Amino acid sequence: MYAFKQFGSKYVLSIDNHQEISAALAAFCREKDIRCGAVYGLGAINKATFRFLDPATKKYVDKTFEEQMEITNLTGNISRKDGEVYLHLHITASRRDYSCIGGHLLSAVLSGACELVVESFDGEIGRRFDPETGLNLYDL
Ligand code: FE
C-alpha cells in the first residue's frame, strides 16, 4: 500500500499507485501509532472528491472530479477522534489546462506517484464537535 523511510520524528512516505490517499495515510498512521502530527506532499490523481463547508447550513457539499490532475499541494494534520485516526486534509490540484481546483479532501485515487512527508509529534490531540461551526475542532 505504501513504502516509507524514517528520519527521526519524520517519515518520507510513498503511496502505491491506484491507492486511495486518505485511506493509505490513515493506515500508515495506525501502523506507526501517530496520534498527532502534520503532513504535506504532492503527487498525481485521477479521481477525487473535494468538500466545501457551507457556513450557512454547516454541511459539506461534495463534488467528485474524474480526470488526471497534479497534486500541487496536499497539506493537513493528524489527530484522534474517539480513539481513531482523524485526518484533516486540504488539497489543491491542477488540471490539464493548468487551472487549479481544490478543497477539503475527502478521497483521492492516485494515478502516478504520491510523495508525502509525515511528521509525528510526541503526544496526542483529540477532536471535539463544535456546534457553532459544525466542525470537529482540535480539543487542545
Ligand atoms: Fe477542512
Question: How would you explain this protein's 3D organization?
Answer:
The chain has 140 residues and is mostly beta strands. The chain has one helix and nine strands. Strands 1, 2, 3, 4, 5, 6 and 7 form a seven-stranded antiparallel sheet that branches. Strands 8-9 form a two-stranded antiparallel ribbon. The longest helix has 12 residues, at 21-32. Residues 88, 90, 104 line the site of fe (iii) ion.
Topology:
Layout: E1 2-7, E2 10-15, H1 21-32, E3 37-54, E4 59-65, E5 69-81, E6 84-94, E7 100-120, E8 126-130, E9 135-139
Antiparallel strand pairs: 1-2, 2-7, 3-4, 3-5, 3-7, 5-6, 6-7, 8-9
Question: Which descriptors would you attach to this protein?
Answer:
140 residues; 7-stranded antiparallel sheet; mainly beta; two-stranded antiparallel ribbon; 9% helix; single chain; binds fe (iii) ion
The radius of gyration is 15 Å
Total helices: the number is 1
Oligomer: single chain
Give the low-confidence spans: none
The major β-sheet equals: 7 strands, antiparallel
Structural class: mainly beta
Head-to-tail CA distance between termini: 32 Å
Provide the helix percentage.
under 10%
**Small ligands present:** fe (iii) ion
Order of helices and strands: EEHEEEEEEE
E-strand count:
9
The whole-number mean of residue pLDDT values reads: 97
